Amino acid sequence: MSSIGVLSGDIVASRDIADKRKLRGAIDTGIERLGRNLGAVGTRFRGDAFQLAVPRIEDSIVAAVIMRASLIEHSPSRRQTWDARIAIGIGEGQVPAPDDFINADGEAFVRSGQGLDALSQGHQRLGLFLAAPQPDLNLLIQFADDIISHWSHNAAEVIRLSLLADHSQSELAKRLGRSQPTINRRLSAARWSLIRDFLEFTRQRLETVT
Q1: What is the pTM of this model?
Q2: Are 200 and 162 in contact, with CB atoms under 8 Å apart?
Q3: Dmax over Cα atoms in the chain, in whole Å?
Q4: Residues 126-161: pLDDT tens digits?
Q5: In what order do the strands lie in the sheet with 84-92?
Q6: 33, 66 in Cβ contact below 8 A?
Q7: Most buried residue among 93, 137, 164, 175 by CB atoms closer than 10 A?
Q8: Contact in structure between 41 and 101 (CB atoms under 8 Å)
Q9: What is d(CA 42, CA 34) in angstroms, rounded to the nearest whole number?
């Protein structure tokens, strides 16, 4: 059986979110984007929780970053930012059919579910769970997690667009109806260059750890 990545997530402080319908729509939009761009299969359940299977393990961390960016992008205000804890489990498994996701099983699903329980006990919102611990990789993830946790919805939007398509700053400016200096400021505020290098490094590492 081949290895896959599984993302298990739940919304941070979901009880404080009044517009549950908009929140569910934001989760569904994130799942749809990952399906269209990375071939992921996922589902939302209990209203504020979700799970996705990613066929290529090297795409697992970028999938989690896109999902968080998509949620933050849809936040209703600067005072109330929507975000999620996401545990990435890597291991043997198969990507289920969309209509049979409830029966999905395997190492990756178990690790991801257990990982989400572990994240729920602390402040970290992004975690990677493998058969063998990777302390250096986990430390980098903690740094990236801290950066992501401070994104504004504008910064998250330009990061999400940058991850899903290779847009130049001028193309992003045209698409969003903003000036190029504005786009540059948003990318800089989101620490885009560091996030991009982080994702490339972790992509290469995940290709070698299984």
Answers
A1: 0.94
A2: no
A3: 49
A4: 999 999 988 999 999 999 999 999 999 999 999 999
A5: 41-45, 49-54, 3-11, 84-92, 126-129
A6: yes
A7: 93
A8: yes
A9: 9
Report the length, in residues, of the chain: 210
- Residues whose CB is less than 8 angstroms from the CB of residue 2 and which lie 6 or more positions away in sequence, other chains included: 92, 93, 94
| Token pair for 182 | 């504005």
- CB contact at 8 A, 64 and 126: yes
pLDDT tens-digit profile of 108-132?
A: 999 999 999 999 998 999 999 999 9
